[in-house]
Every structure is written in C-alpha cells, then in structure tokens.
UniProtKB/TrEMBL annotation, chain A:
GO terms for biological process: transmembrane transport. It comes from Marinobacter vulgaris. Its main location: membrane. Keywords: Cell membrane, Membrane, Transmembrane, Transmembrane helix, Transport. CDD domains: TM_PBP2 (cd06261). It is found in: Cell membrane. Belongs to the binding-protein-dependent transport system permease family. CysTW subfamily. This is ABC transporter permease. InterPro entries: Bact_Polyamine_Transport (IPR051789), MetI-like (IPR000515), MetI-like_sf (IPR035906). Residues 83-283 form the ABC transmembrane type-1 domain. The keyword Disulfide bond does not apply. GO terms for cellular component: plasma membrane. The chain crosses the membrane at residues 12-38, 89-107, 119-143, 163-185, 206-231, 264-284.
TrEMBL record, chain B:
It comes from Marinobacter vulgaris. GO terms for biological process: transmembrane transport. SUPFAM superfamilies: MetI-like (SSF161098). This is ABC transporter permease. Belongs to the binding-protein-dependent transport system permease family. CysTW subfamily.
Length: 289, 286, 362
C-alpha cells in the first residue's frame, strides 16, 4: 500500500488503470464542452463539421447561403449583459467577503473573549446550510420586510426586493465563512513575535499591522479573493432565489439551456473555464513567489 | 489585562462579525421558520398553524421526494468517498514531487467550471444525440441512438462528479500528514492489507473523511441543476419543490416549510455523522 | 549616574504566582550582563518587562535615568533580539534592517548607507537584497543583531538567541557576540539557561531562580564563590555531599558525611548551627585521586570506582560514596592511576576549594 510495502504486479496495473479511468472521467465533460465550442454545426453533437470561430465572433447577419445567421457570444447582448451583472456581483461579494474574512480571522485567531467557541461554531454554520435555504431565508426575510413596509407605510424599500443587493447578501453569507477559514489558517501560522519585533523597532501597533502582519496575510488574501470571485461567479442555487430583472450569467445560461443547447453555450463555458484557470494560475504564481 | 483599548478593539472586530451572522444568517432563518407556521386565510389575514407541515405529510409526493433525496444523497456521498479514497491515497502516499502536485491540480480542474457547465458537459456526452451514443453506434454495438440521460444513474454520475473535488482535497490533506511508519509498523506487527487499512489508515483519516462527507452531502442534498437537467420525469429532487413553491406558485409559506424540513434533514444527518464518527464540527471544518 | 539600566523592586504576578519577585538590578553602561536561570524561572518575563511588552505590577524601570514604566515598547530606547529572531519573512535583509530607521523617518539614501555599514560591521557585506530565509542560521543571527544595532539603542536585549543553532555554530557565535558587543560598546542584557553561554560572554551574570536573583557577580566569582547552594549546583559541574555539621573553625566547617568520614569545606555566609544537616559542594576538578599522596590539611573521602567516562579533556571518573555518585576529573596526561571497576580509592581535596551550605530542606 505504501512504497515500502511490496505490491503485486497485478495490483499495480489495476491501480494504474483506475487512476487513468478516474482522470478521464474528470476531464471528459469539460473537454467535450470546450471542443464543441468550435464545431461548425448549429447543435453541439457529432459528427464534427469543421472548425469555426462563429460561436464567438459571428455577428448575426444572414450568411451567404441564405441560412439564418449565427450570433456569436461577443455579439449576444443578453449574455454579455449577464456576464457584466455577474462580474459586478462577484466584485462586491469578493470585496465584502475578504474584508469580513480578515476581520473574523483576527477576531478568532488573535483575541480571547468569552463565548468565542460558540461564535466560532456560528461562523461555521453557513457551511452546513444548503445554498437554496440560504437564498430562501434571505428572500423571505428581506423581501417580506419590503412587502410589509410597503403595505403598512407605503414606503418602497427597493433595495430589499430581489435584485443585485440581495444576491450579494445571499452569496456573502457563505463565501465569507470560506474566506475566513482561508485567511485564519494563514494567520494561525503567523508568529506574533514578529509584531512585537516591529513594536520593538519603533513601529506603532497600527504601523506594525500594516507593515508586518498584512504582508504576511497577502497570499491568503489573494487566494481568498480568487476563491470568492469564482464561487460567486459560479453560484446558482442561492442566486436564482434572489435575482431580479438583471439576471447573472449562470441563471441566464440555465434559461438558455432549457430552451435548447447551442454551441454558444459551449463558447461561454469555455470562456469561463479559461478565465477561472487564468485566475487560479495568477494566484498560484503569486503565492509561489 | 483588560484595558479599555483592548475592549474597544474587541468590539470593533466583533461588530462586523455579528452584523453578518445576525443579519444574514440568524434573523433570516428565524423568519423562515416563522413564515412556515403562518396560514394565509385571506389576502390580508394570517393565522398560525401547521397546515404546511400537514400538507407535507399527507401529500405522498412531498415526503417520497424528501426520502428519495435524502437516501440518494447519502448513497452519492458514500460512492464519492469510495471513488475518491484510492485517488487521494495515490496522490498523498505514492506519487512523488512533480507528479504529485500535478495530479492534485488535475483534481481541482472541475472547480474551474461551474456546476452548470459541468452538467452541460455530461448532457452533451450522455443524451440521445450525444457522444457516447454516437460512439456506440460507430462501433456497431447498438443499432439506433441510445438515451443515457434522464435517469437516476445519470443523476448520480453528475452528482458524484460535482462532489469529487470536495472529497479528494480533505482526504489528501489528512493522508499527507500521516507518518508512513505507522503503516509500516502495522505490517511489521503482522497486519494484513485489510487490517492495516481498517485499524490504522481509516482512523487516522477520519477527520478528512468526515469533513469531505459533510461537504459532499450538503452539496448533493442542496443541488438543483444536476437533478433537474439530468434527471428523468420521476426523479424529482426536493430542492425542485422548494423552487416551485417560491418561483412558480409564489406560495412562500409552503416553500418555507419545505425549506425548514430540508434544513432539519441536513442538520440531523450531519449531526449523526459527527456523533457516529466521534468528530466535532470545529475539528473537521475549522 | 552612568548606569544604563536600573530597576528597583520589580514584581510581575500571574495569578497567585509571582514570575518576577522583587528584582532590583543596576547595569553600568557598556556591560555585557547575563541573566542565567532554568526555564520557568521568570527570566523571559523580566525581559518582556524591560522591552515594554508587559507591565510590572510593582517597581520601577529606569533606562539611562529616564523612567520607562509608562513608555510603550515602540518608544523605548531598547531593542531586542528575539529567541526565534523574528526576522520579517516578507522583507529582504536590507528592509529588515531598515525597518526601524524607516519608522524614524530616516531618508532613503541615509538608510542605505547605514544598512550597508552595519552589515559590514557584522560581517555580512552586500547581502541587502537576500531573503532572510536564504541565509544560514549564523547569518540570520547576525542580521537580527544588525537590525537592532543599526538603531544604536541604549540597551540591547537578547532572548536566548543562540538556542536554535547547532552546537558548533553556537560555540563560534558566543565568541563573536562578545566581540561585537565590545566593538559597538552597547549595553547587552542577555538571558539564557545555558551557563556556558553566560560564563563565556558576560561581564556580570545574575543567576535567577523562582523570580529572584540568587547572586549577581562576574562569571569567575560565580564559579569560585557561589553564594547559594542553587548557584553552586547550577553553575558548572559540582559534587554534592551531605552530612551533619560538627564544628566551625576560621570559616572552615567540619562535616561528618553519612559514611562516617570527617571532611572540611569553607563556609560562605548565613548562620549555621552545630548539629544541623549541611551540604558540601566540591568540583570534580578539585578532587585529587590518589589516596597515598594526601597532604596535611586535605579532606579525604572513601569511594568505590564504578566506571570511567572517557571524553578527551573532560574525561571523568564515576565513583560511589555510599549511595551517592561522585565525579572526579581524570587528567589525560598519564598521571591517573589504573582504576578497575569495584576498586576502592580515596578522593581528597583542599578544604578551601569546597563550599558548605546549610541543607535546604531540613
């Protein structure tokens, strides 16, 4: 089972086959999705009709043979708008979650107070609540409140109607927990003597925090930010409950998919994968330095 | 030493945390529970009652789906663990240096795509006009197109796929921290493969196993896209019913009640899992 | 007043336990002052009081005549080399050393100049742009020193900084630290549990136990004239023999050991009563092996050879006196007789080299 314990040839061979099968299983759906973003056919399936970039760049005008024109991703106003909405949501979610994560990490790793254990458990709570429920509860509370206020006093709290604000709130609920865990794990490895050393060399506590502790946390902050951005961008279950008229990308894609699949969806999917991979590579490149 | 300065900084740091937990977690969930006990008598009068919960137990469709979702989630979690463990073992104990980090990175790849994209990929592969069907026809093994989508097996394939990453990562992390001498000592003292695995490896990996299982179970139980897009007519998922109540029927009271039930189900199963394995939430998640 | 550090009646309590218990000390400028004690004796707490990371419950701290009690750590003219050095991992060597200068708003050009100079002084010229993690243990040590010395502090505190180094490097750094201290002329307050570090480097050593100083003296005096049984046992190797006090004559105490032998040693201080239990400390190198060359006035004790422990210049004889183990130095110049295990020998010493104290727990 481990290198130093002898294994039979057959066992090794079977293990290898299993590994290969596993990684094929892992890669296949994504690979297939990516490849069909370039198939010159109106439907993502075999046979392969040749390579095209239409699903990105076609502008919707009728083609030479008179067939209905294709609209590529970069000319699809609906998808582009959804992409922009998602980006805005992800930006706010990232900002709020990372700030909360930093504050919480300091709270739980550096301070001692009564009831800390209990509050820590509360902090973990969003991880064991299904995403749908997080969305539903926020919808019920805030949207219900907006309804009641409107009925009682005629004041419209549009902020709390389904829309971007609620989506951000819903996603922050659990993404903040994750970013807290990431940043707290790094802070746990910080030697508090470094801060004392900074004080000893003449820094005020605030300067010590910004010149010594924060640079130490930076890799985890970037990591948490990348994770928060991705999770927000990809989230569906919480988002779909809280979204209003401006639909984010995953919801828009879902609606499209129910109408039927077209290679434009593959094009979007590939774009998302490449974007995520770049983001991941960027963060890892930074933390390896 | 509790000076006023440290008291002030405690409150400064505690405030954002409390705002987040109270305003985004506690109050909304309490309100959801409250709404689930409201009975709408006419458009502006509300009474209290358990009508929504009665509906759940009298409508067999509700509780059948509820049970089905719970059982299938448990099964999926178990399956994911079985599939992921050898992989995690290989990465943590047998792979070396570069190939180790490469394999680990490869396990993270599905995370680069959202659940929707992953499900979409499986749809392209499994549906009647999909790749598997075409390949089987090209090989001459079947005569006509085969539909492999829209059944429970397809749903489980998709669910396991979604969960794998969250199982492999904690497993690799705990197995990586295991001292190989433990395993060697196990063999040295006369243990076979089975006993060493059962009495040494698994107890050591328990925190990772429980942590992975909880995350995968929560994801599976709460998933929506995969069962909806890959499941058949009679393979409904409980989350679908919550969505239906809220989005199509605007019946918040019923939806809230179903939500509370799902929350109770997930809490009970997570709690039981922790009790049976003797772990604590703090240890496996924090 | 030319004392750099002056403390009076310092007390720091944790609950009922006083980690620092009425300590007073006075360190003249330019001194290498060590505080030596076993772990848990309160020396780290004392150092943290001096650095300002902790506040005394009672007592005064003055640095060069200035009262420091209410001065925060970042405003004290005191710098510290931490036990694990606490070099900032996110900064280069140059930025580490420049950190304190930057806080003092020294211009960039001036900072560069001073960093280069101090690196030269500690023997690491031109390493400004390296990462601290790339350096060896000894080099990191010097960077940590340079980071403090560049600020020209009145007082430099060192918290067992050699603990993490391996033995050989530690020996080398001991000597180097002493030279650096002389070169910079800064007052060092060095805490350690390693008596050899304290002895080699210091001008004065305070031996600390349970929050108090047992003795403050130059290293040689500590070794030759320990003021308490604890110091006698803690500083250097010592044999401890116990018996009953029979008589005191001219500072010489006569003790009947448990095996009946009548031996002598010098009494230092304190009131001893005839008949009480007493302890006699005699160093292994003061024991003479051959019984037949006993001169007049020497004390003799019978012992049985157990084994010889060969360790070059530190070779020792392990012998039994009753149930008590006694060690004697075995000179490796060929003068030592053959000592088969089990053979009986006499161990003799000059009473002037032995110290007698009243037994601690009668």
């Amino acid at each position: 089972m481990i290198r130093s314990v002898p294994r039979s040839r057959l066992f090794d061979a079977l293990y290898m086959v299993y590994l290969v099968a596993f990684f094929v299983y892992l890669a296949l759906p994504l690979l297939v999705t990516a490849v069909f973003a370039f198939n010159d056919a109106p439907f993502p399936s075999l046979p392969w009709q040749g390579f095209t970039l239409d699903w990105y760049f076609a502008d919707g005008s009728a083609s030479a043979d008179g067939s209905a024109g294709r609209t590529g991703l970069f000319h699809d106003d609906g998808l582009l708008a959804a992409l922009w909405v998602s980006a805005k949501i992800a930006f706010w979610v990232t900002l709020v979650s990372v700030c909360l994560g930093c504050v919480n990490a300091v709270l739980f790793e550096r301070l001692h107070f009564r009831g800390k254990e209990f509050l820590y458990l509360l902090m973990l709570l969003p991880l064991v609540i299904p995403g749908v429920i997080l969305g539903v509860s926020i919808l019920v509370f805030y949207s219900g409140m907006a309804n009641d206020v409107s009925a009682a006093w005629g004041i419209e709290l549009d902020l709390f109607r389904p829309g971007m604000t609620l989506v951000v709130m819903g996603q922050v609920t659990f993404i903040a927990t994750l970013s807290t865990l990431v940043i707290a794990a790094r802070l746990r490895k910080f030697d508090p003597q470094l801060e004392e050393a900074a004080l000893n060399l003449g820094a005020t506590p605030l300067v010590a925090w910004f010149t010594v502790t924060l640079p130490w946390l930076m890799p985890s902050i970037f990591g948490a930010a990348a994770m928060a951005f991705l999770m927000s961008f990809e989230n569906f279950n919480t988002t779909v409950m809280l979204t209003g008229s401006d639909t984010p990308l995953t919801v828009a894609l879902f609606n499209r998919l129910r109408e039927g699949s077209t290679p434009v969806l593959n094009a979007v999917a590939l774009l998302l994968m490449v974007g995520s991979a770049l983001l991941a590579a960027l963060v890892m490149g930074r933390s390896n330095k | 030493m509790k000076s006023s300065a440290s008291r002030l900084s405690l409150w400064l740091l505690l405030t954002p945390f409390l705002l987040w937990i109270v305003l985004l977690v506690l109050l909304p969930h309490l309100q959801m529970v409250r709404v689930s006990f409201q009975v709408r008598e006419s458009w502006d009068t509300i009474a209290w009652g358990v009508e929504q919960y009665q509906n759940f137990f009298t409508e067999s469709y509700y509780w059948r789906t509820f049970l089905r979702t719970g059982v299938m989630s448990l099964f999926t979690t178990f399956l994911t663990l079985i599939i992921a463990f050898p992989i995690a073992w290989y990465i943590a104990r047998l792979a070396r240096g570069r190939s180790k980090s490469l394999l680990f990175m490869a396990c993270l790849i599905p995370f680069w795509a959202s659940e929707l994209v992953r499900t979409y990929g499986w749809m392209i592969l499994l549906r009647e006009s999909g790749l598997f069907s075409s390949w089987l026809q090209a090989l001459g093994w079947v005569d006509g197109p085969v539909e492999m989508l829209y059944n429970d097996v397809a749903v489980i394939i998709g669910l396991v796929y979604n969960g794998l990453l969250f199982m492999v990562v904690p497993l690799v992390t705990t197995l990586d921290g295991m001292d190989e001498n433990l395993v060697e000592a196990g063999y040295d003292l006369g243990g076979g493969h089975g006993t060493v695995l059962r009495e040494i490896v698994v107890p050591w990996a328990m925190p990772g196993i429980v942590s992975g299982c909880i995350v995968v179970f929560m994801l599976t139980l709460g998933s929506y896209l995969t069962p909806v897009l890959m499941g058949g007519k009679d393979s409904a998922w409980f989350t679908e019913q919550i969505f239906t109540q809220f989005i199509t029927r605007f019946n918040w009271e019923q939806g809230a009640a179903l939500g509370v039930l799902l929350l109770v189900l997930s809490s009970v199963i997570v709690w039981m899992g922790l009790k049976i394995s003797g772990q604590s939430l703090r240890k496996v998640m924090g | 007043m030319d004392s750099d550090l002056f403390c009076e009646g310092l007390v720091r309590r944790f609950g009922a336990n006083a980690a620092v218990d009425h300590i007073s000390l006075d360190v003249p400028a330019g001194t290498f002052f060590s505080i030596l004690g076993p772990s848990g004796c309160g020396k780290t707490t004392l150092l943290r009081l001096l650095a300002g990371f902790d506040k005394p419950d009672e007592g005064e701290i003055h640095i060069r005549g200035q009262r420091m009690n209410d001065v925060p750590p970042n405003r004290r003219p005191v710098n510290m080399v931490f036990q694990h050095l606490a070099l900032f991992p996110t900064m280069s060597v140059g930025d580490n050393i420049g950190y304190g200068l930057k806080r003092r708003k020294v211009t960039l050009a001036e900072r560069r100049k001073r960093i280069a100079r101090v690196l030269e002084q500690v023997g690491l010229p031109g390493l400004e742009n390296r990462d601290p993690q790339e350096l060896s243990g000894g080099q990191r040590q010097r960077v940590a020193l340079a980071r403090c010395l560049v600020l020209e502090p009145t007082l430099l505190l060192l918290d067992e900084p050699l603990g993490a180094l391996d033995l050989k490097l530690r020996e080398q750094m001991k000597v180097e630290l002493k030279h650096l201290q002389k070169q910079f002329g800064t007052t060092f307050v060095y805490i350690t549990h390693d008596q050899s570090e304290a002895m080699v480097m210091s001008d004065r050593v305070a031996v600390m136990r349970d929050g108090r100083f047992d003795q403050v003296a130059p290293p040689e005096e500590l070794y030759r004239e320990p003021a308490t049984p604890f110091v006698a046992g803690f500083v250097g190797d010592n044999n401890r023999l116990s018996g009953a006090l029979v008589a005191i004559r001219d500072n010489l105490a006569e003790i009947r050991l448990d095996d009946g032998a009548l031996v002598q040693g010098r009494v230092v201080a304190g009131e001893l009563e005839i008949g009480q239990r007493a302890e006699l400390f005699i160093r292994p190198e003061s024991l003479v092996l051959s019984a037949d060359r006993v001169g007049p006035g020497l004390s003799v004790m019978e012992a049985k050879v157990r084994t010889t422990l060969f360790d070059g210049a530190n070779s020792r004889l392990e012998a039994e006196n009753g149930s008590r183990l006694v060690y004697a130095r075995l000179p490796q110049d060929g003068s030592a007789p053959r000592l088969p295990p089990g053979s009986a020998i006499g161990l003799a010493w000059d009473p002037a080299l032995a110290r007698v104290f009243g037994a601690e727990n009668p």
